[in-house]
Amino acid sequence: AVERTLSIIKPDATKRNLTGKIIAKFEEAGLRVVASKRVQLTAAQAGEFYGEHKERPFFGELVAFMISEPVVLQVLEGENAIAKNREVMGATDPAQAAEGTIRKEFALSKGENSAHGSDSPEAAAREIAFFFSGLELVG
Ligand code: CMP
User: Fold this and answer.
1) What single DSSP character describes residue 97?
2) Active site (catalytic) residues
3) Which pLDDT does position 11 carry in this prediction?
4) Residue 58 counted as an annotated binding residue
5) CA 88 – ligand 1 centroid, Å
């Protein structure tokens, strides 16, 4: 089925001017950018977005990292977009990520891992609505 997923190009990647290279990998895999904006997140926004990780030991570090530089928020659309996006990103830990994936090529560590993608249809719906209004999605 055609799905939409929320993608974030993270601060380690925007800082190193890798935005275009990362978007190219999604496009080459057949995903289409149907919404896009570059923003500076606040701690409140990043904390709410990652609310499910609030009790994790890395939560403070995660929020601090996500507000350290601008991020690029995008909605990607395509056949099986949620799984395809995660396949193109590769494993969370760059040491475990497959050849050719975004995290293998660009990520610095488990935390500074260049990209985020929704992990389920429910998460995608919540995460897209968190950052975008319906009017901003142009398929
Ligand atoms: P993401 O897909 O954005 O969702 C949660 C994030 O937490 C994850 O990517 C990682 O960047 C981050 N994360 C997961 N494990 C660790 C860890 N051990 N240390 C720091 N950050 C982590």
Assistant:
1) P
2) 116
3) 99
4) yes
5) 17
